[in-house]
Fold:
Amino acid sequence: MKLRYLKNVATLRLSAEKCNGCGRCAEVCPHGVFSVNERKAKIEDKDCCMECGACAKNCPAQAITVNSGVGCAQAVIKGWLTGSEPSCDCSSSEGCC
Amino acid sequence: MSNEKSCCCSAESCCSTETITPFNKNDEWVTGEIHTPKGKVPVVSTKLHFKDVLGAWKVRWGMGMMNYKISPGLYAVGKPDHTSPVLVSANYKLTFDVLRKELSGLDCWILILDTKGINVWCAAGKGTFGTDELVDRISKTGLSEIVSHRKLVLPQLGAPGVSAHKVTQGTGFSVIYGPVRAKDIKAFLDSNCNATKEMRTVKFTAWNRLVLTPVELVAAAKISLKVFGVLFLINLLAARPFGLPDFIAYMGAVLTGTVITPLLLPAIPGRAFAWKGWLLGLLWTLGFIWYNGWFAPGFLLLAIGYLLVLPSLSAYLAMNFTGSSTYTSFSGVIKEMKIAVPLIALSTVAGIVLVLIESL
Structure:
């Protein structure tokens, strides 16, 4: 059974215009969100995106944007409490990630 | 010689000899050293010893997790030469062990980045498994003089921290992203660095989820000790002291949130983690109250109180498992929490008030 998280929240955007079809995005995506056909990448399944940011970071044409961050409730709570950016900093005994 | 600046340790052994990667002579996983044009490199075993297995077990239970690391630098597996592949990984010992045990029979180099003892994926998210550290480590180890090719194999889960094209610009090395799981690395290298779609996809199997639960349980148990302390004080003046049934009800809710919900994750209806935890917590609490006969006039406040508190507790603990999961997005977690956290807080406070009214 494939695990799926909330629908219609992912902030992933792809500019077909800028895309040079190198295929890096499909290579790095851990959830198979992209497909590449005829030298153009396409978002196949946006709801599978976990916003890790690998595609945007490795896109040499800067055709991809995504609000990347940690999908971790404890990090968010910590961010709210300390007023800082939520980061995956499990310095206590928590088993995040 | 290349490493003299980076290793500012006090031990003479590391700075006076031409050792690229410092290591502890007592470590069983180092089986020898190999000479390269830039100095000596430790050769590592592809077998795990009892100490490695014990160490892995300890970090899974939250003991000493934060100091389980090895020195960053270059390591050798087998008898690598200047044509051998270079695999890049993190300096978390657990990660290193998982990788090296899959490399038996291979001759290759392992370039370990300084990720402060954090695994590849988390370190990539934080940026410590990143472009700068990789570029820096290549120059510190003198890798370009040790190998004649210009290819690096990185774990795919390191991609959120590394810009492949920037690494190439900075060092001349091209980056190939290998499989997600170390167990596929041999098949990947054998197929001329082609990963199947299956090798590229992250999974979250029942076993993956199970090994992550002990650490959640231990963390919850630590906080629970404080709760028990408060309940003990309340018991000193309570009309109905908290006893074994209350303890079982509470522990059941904790187990539901930290272990049962993660294990049954795909089978529980709905998508939000807090919802899944709440649903199972509700089932547990209803079952327990019914079994104890608390749906009776004298216990009604207590029953309603616990129905408000315990499922909320399970919901909160289950929500925390988002950080351990491999498929939750930041935007999704924010959306879930904006709804779940106020509801959990309200329900918990109301429930505690009811239980206290009944008890005092």
